[in-house]
Design a protein that fits this description.
Distance between the termini: 61 Å
Number of helices: 6
Strand order of the largest sheet: 10-9-8-11-13-12
Number of strands: 13
Structural class: alpha/beta
CATH architecture of the largest domain: 3-Layer(aba) Sandwich
Largest sheet: 6 strands, mixed
CATH superfamily of the largest domain: P-loop containing nucleotide triphosphate hydrolases
Length: 318
C-alpha cells in the first residue's frame, strides 16, 4: 500500500516531472499522477512552481529519493501569467501563490527598457499582485538627468510601485531589498542579462544560481535560468527565479482594459468627457489632464499610449 499523503511546495517543473520542497527544507523528485498530465504527457499549467501539492511515496515502506507521486494540487490564491510564445498563443502560468512581483531591470548592459517594465507591471496589477522595481547596475548609470536611476524610480513611485537602487556586485541596496522580501514569496522577473541570478546569489549567500554574461556583440543577455526555480533560504522567505525574457506578451489584458492595469490612472477613469475615452488624444481626457498636472508621470503616460497602439495592432493586424 502507498504511504501517507504529505504536502509540499513545487520548487521546479520539467515537463512531466517536478521537484518538491518539503517542510524540512529537503528536496524530492516526483512525477505527477496520470490524471494531472495533459494529452502530450506534459504538465502545462496544471502544476507550476509555487503550487501547494499533495504527494505520496511510491514504495511500500517510506520513500527513497526521487520516488514520489503528486496526487493533487491545492486551489491557487493567485497566478502570474504571460502569453505563451508558441504558434498557438495561450496562457503560460509562470508561478502560483505569490506575495509580490520583483521586476529586475538594469541601467546598462542592457539598458533600462520601459516598455518591458510596464508590461510586467501591468500583468502584476491585472493579477492583483503588489510589485516593486529593482534597478540593478546603478554604478553604470548617470547620476543626474532623466536617465538617472532615482528619476526612473520617482516615475514609478507616483504609480504606487516602490523601488530600489542596486548594485549586486558591490552590495549596494541589497539589505533594503532583502528586508522587503522577507516574510513573503517573491517572484523575480526581468529582461535577459539584467543580473537576476547574480542578484539572488547576493541576496542569499551560497545559493549559487547559474550566472550568465551579456553577449558582447548584441548587448543582449544570455539565458542562464531555463525554468522557474523556488528557493527557501529561511522560513517564510521564498524567492522564485525565472528565465530572462526578451519580450513579454500580456495575457488577459486588451486595449479596452489596459487603462485599469495602470494603477495611477484609476482615480481618473470615468471622469473623461467621453465614456469610451481611450486616453490617447481625445478632448477633455481626465487622464491626460492629470499627466499635464504632473500627477501621472509623463513617461508612464507615453508608455501607455505606445502599449495601447501595440495591443490594437495585435488585435486588428493590417
Amino acid at each position: 500500500m502507498p504511504g501517507p499523503i504529505s504536502e509540499a511546495v513545487v520548487a521546479r517543473v520539467d515537463f512531466g516531472a517536478c521537484v518538491l520542497l518539503l517542510e524540512d527544507g529537503g528536496l524530492l523528485g516526483a512525477r505527477a499522477r496520470g490524471k494531472l498530465m495533459g494529452p502530450r504527457k506534459a504538465l502545462g499549467n496544471t502544476i507550476v512552481v509555487g503550487d501547494r501539492v499533495r504527494w505520496e511515496p511510491t514504495g511500500t515502506s517510506g520513500h527513497r529519493e526521487g520516488e514520489a507521486v503528486v496526487t493533487a494540487v491545492d486551489p491557487r490564491r493567485n497566478v502570474f501569467s504571460r502569453r505563451s510564445s508558441a504558434n498557438r498563443p495561450g496562457e503560460q502560468v509562470v508561478a502560483a501563490n505569490i506575495d509580490q512581483v520583483v521586476l529586475v531591470a538594469s541601467m546598462a548592459e542592457p539598458e533600462f527598457s520601459r516598455g518591458l517594465a510596464d508590461r510586467v507591471l501591468c500583468q502584476a496589477e491585472h493579477a492583483g499582485l503588489p510589485a516593486r522595481l529593482a534597478l540593478n547596475k546603478v554604478d553604470l548609470a548617470p547620476q543626474s538627468g532623466d536617465a538617472a536611476p532615482q528619476s526612473i524610480l520617482d516615475d514609478y513611485l507616483r504609480a504606487g510601485v516602490p523601488g530600489h537602487c542596486l548594485c549586486a556586485k558591490t552590495g549596494e541596496g541589497l539589505d533594503d531589498l532583502r528586508r522587503a522580501c522577507q516574510g513573503r514569496r517573491s517572484l523575480f522577473v526581468g529582461h535577459s542579462g539584467v543580473g537576476k541570478s547574480t542578484l539572488l546569489n547576493a541576496l542569499v549567500p551560497r545559493l549559487q544560481l547559474l550566472e550568465g554574461a551579456v553577449n558582447e556583440k548584441t548587448g543582449k543577455g544570455r539565458h542562464t535560468t531555463t525554468a522557474a526555480i523556488l528557493v527557501r533560504p529561511e522560513p517564510d522567505y521564498e524567492l522564485i527565479d525565472t528565465p530572462g525574457v526578451r519580450v513579454f506578451a500580456l495575457w488577459g489584458i486588451g486595449p479596452r482594459d489596459l487603462d485599469h492595469a495602470y494603477r495611477e490612472f484609476r482615480p481618473f477613469l470615468g471622469a473623461c468627457r467621453f465614456g469610451d475615452c481611450r486616453h490617447a488624444g481625445e478632448p477633455d481626457c481626465a487622464v491626460r489632464a492629470a499627466t499635464d498636472a504632473g500627477t501621472i508621470a509623463p513617461r508612464r503616460y507615453a508608455s501607455y499610449v505606445k502599449l495601447l497602439s501595440e495591443l490594437e495592432d495585435e488585435r486588428d493586424p493590417a
